[in-house]
Design a protein that fits this description.
The protein is an alpha/beta fold. 50% of the residues lie in helices and 20% in strands. The protein is built from 13 helices and 9 strands.
Length: 332
């Protein structure tokens, strides 16, 4: 009888220890997550992040909550620091551009290569294929689990000096760019004076005349009200800029399979919503910017070809950094 009783006690202890090692019942585990977004509350990024937070909380019956912080509040306005924090686990989730990720790993800069994608449909079809899986693997190597891609869109150029229709129109302009080497080399090849700074400083720098212009997708230009400090925009779709909805990999790996799937499903819906809203709103945003006094010029294919010719050497210079196999997965 004593042996049977001892066996029952030992079995109970083993079960209890197993439950503890597995973090207990997955349905009982709670998470209070923070999520950083680079731009403000008027952006499609923020609205999609809010949708994600709402859906996750509802589907987990309140076990998983996500607090969304605009304008990189968690990293003092610095997007590069935000991605580092995400990788290190001092920040849980974020929407960040792959441009910012490429500061951490230059291979990711391949997606920003000049005039690589002819249109958004082509870009997303390639992201859904082998190239996209290669990108996700690189992101995982850097401590972040990618929960899919959003859309910052193609990047356009604005300035307060004159319209830009030819490469010569860029010469001598002081242009704010994100802090990656490829963009610095690219913009120097145009004859500009490229200046790196965090996006949170851009509006004031434009207002004070410290810089002449900047480049960003339409949604960022619109939601940040850059038309108040910029007179001209050229639509030239020179660099594709997808977003990554990322979560710290160690955190994600610690979740139950059920919670991981819940996060993946909600993220897929948030990304689809963000992309849909960004594409739907861009035409309206351009019209609104124009109605507020911004002069907008769209390059013809012939005019765009002149800019493409100037930047061809960038591919030879960065092919070894990006990796030829990765570049070929996206190059048409």
């Amino acid at each position: 009888m004593k042996k049977i009783l001892l066996g029952i006690i030992l079995s109970a202890l083993i079960l209890a220890m197993t439950a503890c090692s597995n973090g207990g019942n997955a349905e009982d585990k709670t998470y209070d997550l923070d999520m950083s977004v680079t731009v403000g509350e008027a952006s499609t990024w923020y609205k999609a992040a809010e949708k994600l937070a709402k859906d996750v909380e509802e589907r987990s019956d309140g076990r998983i909550t996500i607090s969304v912080y605009p304008n990189e509040q968690l990293s003092g306005g610095d997007s590069g620091t935000a991605v580092e924090q995400l990788s290190q686990g001092t920040q849980d989730m974020s929407y960040n551009s792959t441009i910012i990720y490429s500061i951490m790993d230059q291979r990711l800069g391949v997606l920003s290569a000049p005039f690589l994608f002819p249109d958004l449909d082509t870009a997303y079809s390639l992201l859904d294929g082998e190239g996209g899986e290669m990108i996700k693997d690189i992101i995982r190597e850097n401590g972040v689990e990618p929960l899919g891609f959003g859309q910052n869109g193609f990047r356009q150029i604005t300035n307060s000096v004159h319209p830009i229709k030819t490469p010569e129109d860029l010469k001598g302009l002081k242009i704010r760019i994100p802090g990656i080497n490829m963009y610095t080399d690219l913009w120097r090849s145009f004859g500009t004076d490229p200046t790196t700074m965090t996006f949170s400083e851009v509006f004031t720098s434009l207002q004070q005349g410290t810089i002449d212009g900047q480049e960003n997708p339409v949604d960022v230009i619109h939601s940040s009200q850059l038309n108040e400090v910029q007179n001209y925009m050229t639509v030239w779709d020179y660099s594709f800029d997808p977003l990554i909805l990322g979560i710290n990999k160690d955190l994600f790996d610690s979740m139950s399979k059920e919670d991981q799937q819940l996060m993946r499903d909600a993220a897929a819906e948030a990304n689809a919503y963000q992309i849909e809203q960004a594409q739907k709103l861009e035409t309206e945003q351009l019209k609104e910017l124009e109605s507020k006094g911004m002069e907008i010029y769209k390059l013809t294919e012939e005019e765009k070809a002149a800019f493409q010719k100037v930047v061809e050497p960038i591919y030879d210079e960065y092919k070894s950094i990006w990796g030829e196999e990765l570049l070929n997965a996206f190059k048409q």
